[in-house]
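Field reference: "sequence" (input) and "structure" (output). Example, DNA-binding protein:
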Amino acid sequence: MREHPPNDQLLSRTEVHTHFGLTQRFLEGAACKGGGPTFVKIGRSVRYRAGDVRVWIETRRIAPVPEVPKGRSAPKITSLDADWQTIGDLANALVAKIATLRAKEGGTNE
């Protein structure tokens, strides 16, 4: 069993992979694009506080979807809005609403 590093220990990407299983490729991409754990830049080196990685992982926890009992179907969402049935319809409705609001304000902001 591996020993877990203390929260304040700075880890290289290789060490983050060893202790937490995040790939170096993911960490490199997340450092450029965002979405990964907070990191520290020391000269040309990138380091991650073990505690920051733990917090980042913990904030990504998702509760499992509860099982539907046998003989029952999952509830259907029918009460949202009769005007849209797909994401495309919703997007069109939002664009139309924004245009209406802009027209009321007297500007188009195109």
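The longest strand covers residues 45-49.
The chain is about 40% helix and 10% strand.
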